[in-house]
Amino acid sequence: MFTGIIEEAGQVVAFVPAAEAWSLQIAAKLVTTDVALGDSIAVNGCCLTVTRFDAGHLWFDLLAETVRLTNFSDLKPGAAVNLERSLKPESRLGGHFVSGHVDGLGRIEVFEVRGKDHYLRVALPPGTGRYLVPKGSIAIDGISLTVAEVAGDSIAVWLLPHTLAVTNLREKQAGGRVNLEFDLLAKYVEKLMASRPV
Fold first, then answer.
1. 180: which strand partners?
2. Cβ-count burial of 155 within 10 angstroms (0-12 exposed, 13-18 middle, 19+ buried)?
3. Listed residue (127, 139, 120, 124) closest to 183, CA to CA
4. Which of 28, 132, 139, 151 could be 10's S-S partner, Cβ–Cβ 3.0 to 4.6 Å?
């Protein structure tokens, strides 16, 4: 479980097909300080398991299905990726509960400066706008953000300069793909309502 509060933006060193899986190597500073084999790290909002590490790098094995369902296939050496270690019971919950299970890919429609802030509008997979409400939460590339607008299967959020400074969003532009995770509560409510007797 994660909070969507990004600890650092790491950098892709390599992302290559290996014998049994895809191998992702990331350079990082903060999240490597207390890492152990088997730890869960959210990378662009996707929960991955550490298979190897050293003082400044993390390695992960990814299934082809994970690559297919996320924006990892867009990663190139040097790309910034959002990193967050899993939540400890005594940790502060500054964002919202994020499972690290990507629900789908969004495509950036608009990303522009408006006044002192940045406006980001994302097209969602068809039919998924029902999971979102204004002032609700969404994880975009693992970042816990507050939904400002919902219009069908499109949402908008406002970004502070700090968010851009500490995440990979500073490298994004219109047309780019982002990993999306909808609020767990919305998905549970939908399932409960569907199974309720009429």
1. 104, 140
2. buried
3. 139
4. 28
3-state secondary structure of 64: helix
Q: Which amino acid is at 86?
A: S
Q: Left if phi > 0, otherwise alpha if psi is -120 to 50, otherwise beta: which for 115? A: left
Cα–Cα nearest to 101, from 73, 142, 129, 158: 142
At position 190, the amino acid (one-letter code) is E
Q: How far is the C-alpha of 85 from the C-alpha of 88, rounded, in Å?
A: 9
Cβ-based burial of 107 (10 A; exposed 0-12, middle 13-18, buried ≥19): middle
Q: Find out whether 85 and 61 touch, Cβ atoms under 8 Å.
A: no
DSSP H helices in the chain: 64-69, 161-166, 184-194
Tell me the pLDDT tens digit for each residue of 58-88.
999 999 999 999 999 999 999 999 999 998 7
46-54 and 57-62 strand pairing? antiparallel
188 contact partners, CB below 8 Å, separation of at least 6: none
Give dist(CA 59, CA 14) in Å, integer: 9
Give CA angle at 147 (141, 153), nearest 5°: 80
Element (H, E) at 118: strand 117-123
Q: Using one digit for the tens of pLDDT, what is the confidence trace for 95-126?
A: 788 889 999 999 999 999 998 889 999 999 99
